[in-house]
Amino acid sequence: MKVFKLIILTFGLMGLVTNFVSATDQTANANFDFSVTPIAENVYSIISPSYGLPSPENKGWNSNSHFVVTDKGVLVFDTGSSELIAKGIRSAIKSVTNKPVRWVVNSHSHADHWFGNAEFANTGAEIIASARAVTIMKEDGPSTVGFFSRVTKGVTGSTRLVYPTLLLAQREKRNLGGVDVEFIFSNDAHSPGDILMWLPKQKIIFGGDVLNSDWMPIITGHGNVPNWIDTLYTVAKLNPAIVLSGHGKATTGKSVIRDADLLAAVWKLVKKGYEGGKKQDEILSQVSDKLAPKYKSLYKDFDSAIKHQVKLIHKQQQ
To answer: CA triplet 302, 316, 170: central angle to 5 degrees?
Structure first.
């Protein structure tokens, strides 16, 4: 469970248990409206109303899912944090199409993005992820099920762990149901084995936690910030029209450049301060003073998140 503990530490330090919104009861024991947001032709999002740690109030539902309706079935990107949540996601998909879910993509190994796999495996869907992410899933999954149950006081229900069976080892292109899809590796930016999904014809990119809209990039102790910066600039060159992230509303390619520039600036300032012998608190003060005028208004959590970013980047200089 070591990897997920790092994520728990991340959220805890950043104070991100926010933005919970109750809605209509659409699935057993979950008072949420799993409504569908149309994004583009045959592309839809199911946006979580909560951001932060799983809790009894948010029932563990704290990440987005997205789906594409193809000629031959539905492609789902991320399945939520439990079978219960996935049932709501599946019901939402059925409100749009009666076509079966044939493919599922797990963006990475953090539990809130793949614990709903079993609900879709029941329909025979092929589940896709990177080989490296699956290694982490198998290491941390069993203990994280227990963790989710404890912190939500059991309201997540029972969750059977179903691991991806189609494992990707490198960037590659596929055609799924008549839709051209490209899987892009982030080189372990946010976490080991992160993958993004690109629809070149519609210029839509699905980013999991590598891409962001409302909140600051979530740096973890097992991610790679320089690789993240490189990945973001690579994605920006694709000139995406629509960016779909793991948390928050849909956004545009401007957010990708925003995040890349922010991370590059924080990394540079922390590295310079560390090499100059400055203490972490001094570096934080300098980073905040320099970057707040440009970035504070662009993120909901700048003040809390910048502290965490500086702390982890400072540690990575050692």
So the answer is: 90
* Cα–Cα dist 46/67, whole Å: 8
Q: Any idea of the CA torsion for 258, 260, 266, 271, to the nearest 10 degrees?
A: -160
**What CATH number corresponds to the domain at position 228?**
3.60.15.10
Tokens of 173: 């292109």
pLDDT tens, the chain, 318 aa long: 454 444 443 443 333 333 322 222 333 334 577 999 999 999 999 999 888 888 888 888 999 999 999 999 999 999 999 999 999 999 999 999 999 999 999 999 999 999 999 999 988 999 999 999 999 999 999 999 999 889 999 888 889 999 999 999 999 999 999 999 999 999 999 999 999 999 999 999 999 999 999 999 999 999 999 999 999 999 999 999 999 999 999 999 999 999 999 999 999 999 999 999 999 999 999 999 999 999 999 999 999 999 999 999 999 998
Report d(CA 256, CA 235) in Å as an integer: 7
Domain around 39:
2-253
> Is there a domain that residue 289 lies in?
no
Could you give the CA distance from residue 21 to residue 238 in angstroms, rounded to a whole number? 34
Residue 298 lies in a domain: no
223 domain residue, yes or no? yes
CA angle (227, 8, 166) in 5-degree steps: 55
Q: Is residue 201 part of a domain?
A: yes
Which helix (H) or strand (E) segment holds residue 107: the answer is none
- Cβ count near 173 (within 10 Å): 10
Q: Which of 178, 191, 179, 94 is nearest to 139 (CA)?
A: 191
* Count of structural domains, the chain: 1
